[in-house]
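Exercise (ungraded).
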Amino acid sequence: MLSNSDKAGDDAVAAFRAVIRVYGLLGRIMQPYFHGLGISGSQWSVLRALVRVEQEGREGLRMVELGDRLLIRPPSISGLVGRLQKSGLVWRYLPKSDLRCKEVRLTPKGRDLVDKILKTHRNQIRYLMCGLNSGERQELLTLLEKLGNHLYSITNGLKRNGASTGTVEDLRG
Amino acid sequence: MLSNSDKAGDDAVAAFRAVIRVYGLLGRIMQPYFHGLGISGSQWSVLRALVRVEQEGREGLRMVELGDRLLIRPPSISGLVGRLQKSGLVWRYLPKSDLRCKEVRLTPKGRDLVDKILKTHRNQIRYLMCGLNSGERQELLTLLEKLGNHLYSITNGLKRNGASTGTVEDLRG
DNA sequence: ATCATCTCCTTAGCATGCTAAGTAATTCAG
DNA sequence: CTGAATTACTTAGCATGCTAAGGAGATGAT
């Protein structure tokens, strides 16, 4: 019985490793691409999130909201936004409603850069992903969304447990 | 015609973003897991590669081979192996055949740790991936391998081009 | 045989991620 | 209304990734 589930685990390990490998390969390609644009991939994620938020009709994002969207922790957000502010692409201010928070928004210079990058960005991503045809990309998206929902529920479990170690036992035992 | 390909690009962007999100979620779960084991995910990758190489009948791996397997650059390998050596898990020596190289192998302490972790590791991965059933995991693996092969051929193109900026134009124009 | 080149590794310096701990503002219990 | 708990952000310190540049050994053209 255990040997059966061992075999069932093999495709789990293989798929797990494949996600990591593909992510690594994407990074190897995207890093020099962003370097040529004068920013980093992480910085692009911030700028992109701020544009999206403007399109939703809001002027800025609180730091913690940014962290939720980008899946990174508050201290990392602080550093990232700080460097973007030093570059003049982003602006940080205190909303009057809650002085604990800081909100971030694009400067005109930041918006200009995003507009410039967006003109070609979709083509770049399309080129990376053209190893799969459209049907395959949609299938991949479906599978990753399903897996992502599962993983997200695990991270919520971690959050509820406080000082968890992230193991199966913590979450199930 | 461009508007058609714009629509075709949408699923490329969505799938691209899904890979990044799933990788981020995996990291959020695996990081505390490895922390509880006394090492990091990157360090585990090194130890795991060294065990695999032993199973292939070789005693150790050159630094640069390690980098190829883990998709990281030589300076990162130096630091990673250096810290593992300081922890006594790994051993670095000069092969007589080529004094430029250094080879890395597990110490007994390192092998003991790997053996201990491997007892439960597959269950942990299986738990992460159980959001998909076995057929879905195999389908995901197939898609990611196909995409990975495409991306790998792009990185080879970057290597051949020397100081490339990693854009579509560099590789196609 | 020798000089140029290539390969492998390392160091220096930076960006990005994390946890732990600290400060300031808000909220809630009494 | 006041004190405790919570929430948001920051700082400090570490690990990991990168590029650029340098040194030592191997290779190759002449």
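Further reading is listed at the end of the chapter. For now, observe: Chain B has two domains: 31-130, 133-173. The helical segments of chain B are 2-37, 41-55, 63-70, 74-86, 108-129, 134-161, 168-172.
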